[in-house]
Amino acid sequence: MPERGIRETEWSLLEALWTLERATARQVTEHLKSSRGWAYSTVKTMLDRMAERNLIAKRQIGNVWEYSPAIPRQEAQRTAWQRFVRLAFGGVTNTALQFAAGE
User: Fold this and answer.
1) Alpha-carbon distance 27 to 10, whole Å?
2) What's the pTM value of the predicted model, to 2 decimals?
3) Would you tell me how many other CB atoms lie within 10 Å of the CB of residue 72?
4) Is the pLDDT of residue 1 over 70?
5) Which helix (H) or strand (E) holds 60?
6) Phi and psi for 60 in degrees, rounded to 5?
7) What gap in Å lies between CA 91 and CA 30, rounded to an integer?
8) Average pLDDT over every residue of 12-26
């Protein structure tokens, strides 16, 4: 799988979509209201950018767009873990696990 490079803020949107399975930008905005407090326009822009990067899928239903995750949660976590190990531990998983166990 190619490197997805999920940004920190994008994790919030993916978590919302993994929970909701599919949702409009308004529904995602409402879901994240208490934790992020983002405006609808911010959520919509971020969702559209994530769709361009194939992190999420979107389809038009009438005059609204519906979004859904294009990447399973476990795959996203695996990719993030591999990226972390590569960047912070030179790609050596055992070193990363020893570090985590010692913390």
Assistant:
1) 16
2) 0.83
3) 10
4) no
5) strand 56-61
6) -90, 130
7) 39
8) 97
